[in-house]
Amino acid sequence: MSDFWTQLIEYTNVVENETSDIDNPEHLLSKLLTHAEHEQELLEAQFNPISTTTKENLSIVSQLQNGISMTKKLLEQHEQLRIQERKLAIEIKSHENKAELIAQDFRTTVKRLNNTARIIDYLHCLETLLKYSSALETSLSTESLDESLSIYCKLAHLTELVLDTSTEHLRSYSVNLTLYWYEQLKTVIDSRMEKILNLIEFPYVHKMSSSHLSELFDMNRDKLKEELKYLLKLHLPNHIKHDDVQPRLRFIGWKPIPLVIQMLLKGFITRFNFHFYGKQKTNDRRKPEWYLNQIVSWILDHDYFLTEQLQPLINEFSDVSPINVKVEFIRGLIELIIVKLDSQITSILIDTSLFTHYIEEILIFSQRLFEKDIDYPYNLPNCMNLLCDEIVFEKWFQVEQDVSRTKLDKIFQSPTAHQSVYERMLERAPDEIKISECAETFLTLLHAMEDRYRHVPYPSCSLRLFSLQLDLFDEFLRDLKFSLNIEQQDIDPLSKHFCSILNSVVYIADVIQQWKNRSHYQRLQYLYDEYKVFIKKYGTDNLDEENLNMIQIDSTLAQQFDLIQLNKENNFVTASIFDHLLEQYRDEEETDCNIIVNHIVSLLKTKSRRYINEKWSTMPNPKDYFNMSISPSAIDILLELQTIFSNLSINLVKNVSNEIRARVTMEFDEYLFNWIVNDHTFNEGGASQFLFDINRGWSRIANDHVSQLFNKCRESALLLTMPIGSALLLVDALQQELSIKSLSNVSSKDSLVSSPLPSALHEMGIHHLSEFGAGQVLQRRLDLTNC
To answer: What's the whole-number average pLDDT of the chain?
Structure first.
C-alpha cells in the first residue's frame, strides 16, 4: 500500500508542476483526468495490437502491395513495347535499304544529268569558241580591226573562264586558239604599225634634225594613235606563258614586254642581230662594250620621242593599264643583251681574263643605266641579274677574291707603301698629306669593290661580296702589324715608318666609323640581321659566332631569302657589324700610341737624371741674379722634348699627335712631381728656379694649352714660392682641417660642403693637388721647417 500512495503522490506532483492554477480543485481534477486518459492511451498503444499506429502501418502495407501489382503491370507493358520496338527496327531497316536503292538510283540519274549538262556546256563552249574563230576570220577578211579586237577580247575572256575547268583538252584547245588569233591579229597590226613607223622614219638610226622629226610626228599623230589603240587592246590572258624569253632568263621581277614596245623594238632587234650575231666584224667576243654602248646610244637617241611624243599619246588611253614607255623600251633592249650574254656565257666562264673584262663592262653599263639621263629603275631586271646566276656569281666572287688579295699583296710590296701619297700636293689639308700610300690604295680598292656590287639586285649576293670587304679589312690590319717587324724586331716608335703605320690604322678606323652611318652599309646591316632570323627559321644556323666579321650565306636557301627580301621594304639600321672590326683597329691604335708614349717617357727619364738631382735646397736667392735663366740641366730635356713633339706633329695626324703629347706631358709631370717635389727640399732660390723652369721651359715647348697639363709641378711651384705669411696661414688651415676631420669623423662629402679650405686653395690657383698633397708640398719648404 505504501508503494501505491508513493506513486500517487509523485503522479500528483507531476500534474501540479504542469498546472499553473493549483488552488482551484476543479481545474486540478480536470487536469488529472486528462493526464490519466493520455497515459491510458499510451498503455493501450503498447499492449493492444489494434492501435492507431498499427492501423497506419496496415495502410502503408496495403499501399505497398498496390504498388507492387502496378509495377508488375508496367513491366508487362514494357516487355510488350520492346517487342514492338524490335518489329519497328526491322521495318525501318527494310525501309532504309529500299531508300538507299532509291538514293543510288537518284545519284546515278543526277550524275548522268550533270555529265549531260557538262557535255552540253562543253559543246556550247566549243561552239562558242568556233563561232568566235569564224567571226574573227570573217572580220579580218573585211579588215574590220575594231570588230576583230572586240571578238578577240571575248575569246580571251572565255579562255580565262575555261582555265578553272577540269577539261584538259578544252583548256588546251582554247589556249591554242587564242594564241593563234593573237598572232594573226598581231601580224595584221604589225604590218599597219610598221607603215606608220616608216612614215615617221622610226627608228632614228641616222642623225636628223629635231624639227624634221617633230614635223613627221605631228603629220602622222592621228594615224599612230589609232594603231596604238589596237595594240593596247591586244594582249594575251595572264595565264598564257610568253615564249619571247627563255624561262631561265625570267629573273625575279620579270614581266612580259608590252606589245606596243615589241613593235617599236622590231627594227632594233633586226639591227642588233645583224651586227652582233653571225660573221660580222662587229660580233667580236672580246668586245662586249660594242653592243653595250650601242644600246646606250639607242636609248639616248630615242629619249625625246619616247618621253615627249609617244608617252603623252599613250596616256590619253585611260581605259588601259598605264605604261612607262621609256622604261619598257629600255627593258626590251636589256633583254637583247641578256640573251646575247647567255649565248656566250659558257665560253666566257672558261677564260678568266675575258670574264673579268665582261664583268667590268657589264658593271659600267649597269651604272650607266641608273644615271640621271637614262634613269632606269633599280628594282627592275638588268644585266646584273645574269651575273647573280649561281654559276656565274661563284665565278665572279672567286675572281673578286683573287684579284683583291693580289692587289692587297702588291700594296705592301711597294717601296713607297708607307710614304705619303699626297706629300707633294700642297693644296691638301695637313692631315690628308699624312695619309700613307698603302692606306689610300687599300681604300681605293674597297671603294671600287663597293661600286661594283652596289647595284647587285639580290641581297644574298650583296652580303657575300660585303663579307669579302670585311675579310680584306682583317687582312690589311694583319699586314700592317706584320710590316712593323718585317725588317727588324724593335722598330723605333718615333720613326717615320712607325708613325705612318699608326696614321694608316687611325685613317682606316675613322673610315670604318663613317661607313657605319652610310645608307649602303646600313641596308647591308639590315639584310644581315634579316638573314640571321631567316637562317634560324628555315635552315641550320651556320653563323660563326667566334668570328663576328664572317658572313656565311647558304647557297641552297639564297634564292628563297632573296624572294622574301625583294618583296619587303628595306629599313636602315646602324651598321653594328663594323663594331668588332672597329674595335680591333682602335685597339691597335691604342697599342701603338702606348708604345710611343712609353718610349718618349723612357727617354725623358734618362735625360732628366741630372735635372732631378739638382741641389734645390741650396740654390742662390733669385735676387742675386740680374736675369734668371732655365736650369742648364733642363735644357737637354727641353730640346729633346721639343724635337720629339715637332717630329710627332710632322709625322702624325693632328688628333693622335695631340693625344700623345698630352699623355707624355701628364706622365712626365707625374714623374717630376714624385722625383723632384716629393724627394727634395726647396729653399727660396730652388723654388723660384723650379717655377721659372716650369713657366719658361716646359710651356715654351708645348702649345695648344698642353702646358696646362704640367698641373702638379706648376701648382707645387706656386705653393713653394708663395709668401711665407700666406704659406703659414695655409699650413694652419690645413692642420686645422685635418684635426677637425679626425675629431668629428664627418663624411668626406659633408667636409667638402662645409669646409672653406677647397675654396682657399682654388683662390691660390691650386686645383689638382689635394689637401694632403698641398700639405706635403708645403713641408718641402725650408723656410717653414725652420719656423
So the answer is: 84
